[in-house]
């Protein structure tokens, strides 16, 4: 081993001064720098692309909308999920450029689906950093005007955390977008109770139940009661509900029986690229409705 290290030192002098335990730190830093350079190149190259996850009508399973999610089609590493690049993009201040690129591409694709009657709405997540910019909503309206997507077909999702920490700025963004016909969805709903007050005083049209509630909704009576109460509260305010993270049939059946109107999750479909989404939309429109019935009734019909 000593000969190897000495050999490296003779041809690669600087390595001799680096303790072995620090080599991995140097390697991690090099990987980060490479990722940063690749990400800066990938955005204008169009490698960050929109993928789509269906939102279904709980009554018949028909696709009525889609949520847009970012994916990086890396030339050597293949398809990368947001966890692989969004954190560093936020640190570098590049998340706004990614959101803008995905927004424009997603609107372009979805405009045709809306025009054909294949979906009602398309929703986008907005990063908290973008929302902190007082000019965000004006710029979004400007970008939307350059596409063929009707404002009434767009849903902008904001997080509960931003809403509660920046209520005044949230109100300005929400009211400005609403005035143009854009709907607002409150994401991660149900993780706290203070957001109920916001629903009473802000023009929010949709809430998305957090997946942390959905995972145990069919097995934990306390969670089931909590979700039912949240559903009742939202319905009383005339707000549409979307349940995220539905991964099991039992969850879907419970939610439908409790009055949840829209659902989204792996039980129905995983995120997919535009061509697969277009095929799924056409099949959904032509398919026989997929009705979710309560569990006892399903057993009797199967007997």
Task: Please give a structural write-up.
The chain has 303 residues and is of the alpha/beta class. It has a single domain (51-302), classed as TIM Barrel (Alpha-Beta Barrel), CATH 3.20.20. The chain is built from 14 helices and 9 strands. Helix 9 (194-201) links the parallel strand 6 and strand 7. Helix 6 (136-145) packs parallel to helix 8.
Task: Put the structure in a nutshell.
With 303 residues, the chain is an alpha/beta fold. Helices cover 51% and strands 17% of the residues.
Give descriptors for this structure.
alpha/beta; 303 residues; eight-stranded mixed barrel; 17% strand; globular; TIM Barrel
Shape: globular
State the end-to-end distance.
71 Å
Number of domains: 1
- Gyration radius (Cα, Å) is 23 Å
**CATH superfamily name?**
EAL domain
Mean pLDDT: 84
Q: What CATH first level would be assigned?
A: Alpha Beta
Q: Tell me the series of helices and strands, N- to C-terminal.
A: HHEEEHHEHHEHHEHEHHEHEHH
